[in-house]
């Protein structure tokens, strides 16, 4: 009797699987892979945006100092992320590039 019950359950599972298989084959193809920015790229973009926005504000503006502080915080996160993965040269190069942007900020605020 238990073998008959086992056969019935097995047949039922096989039918369910077969029905599911035909339904799965009718599903549309998956969307093509869309490239997305990595976390590091997003951080770098945000830092650059903050520094550029700070560059448009007068030196005495509170928003400017907030943007510069936030850019510094994000830069620390970015450098930590890169160095954690052993990308020391990349971290150094990005740090140098951001330093150039910061020097532009400093020179602008001194001339304003």
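-> sequence recovered:
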């Amino acid at each position: 009797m238990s073998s008959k019950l086992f056969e019935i359950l097995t047949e039922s599972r096989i039918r369910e699987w077969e029905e599911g298989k035909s339904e799965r084959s009718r599903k549309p193809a998956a969307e093509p892979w869309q490239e997305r920015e990595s976390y590091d790229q997003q951080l770098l973009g945000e830092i650059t945006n903050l520094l550029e926005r700070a560059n448009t504000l007068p030196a005495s503006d509170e928003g400017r100092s907030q943007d510069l502080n936030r850019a510094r915080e994000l830069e620390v996160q970015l450098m930590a992320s890169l160095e954690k993965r052993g990308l020391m040269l990349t971290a150094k190069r990005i740090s140098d590039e951001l330093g150039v942007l910061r020097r532009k900020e400093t020179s602008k605020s001194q001339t304003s």
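The CA atoms of residues 59 and 102 lie 13 Å apart.
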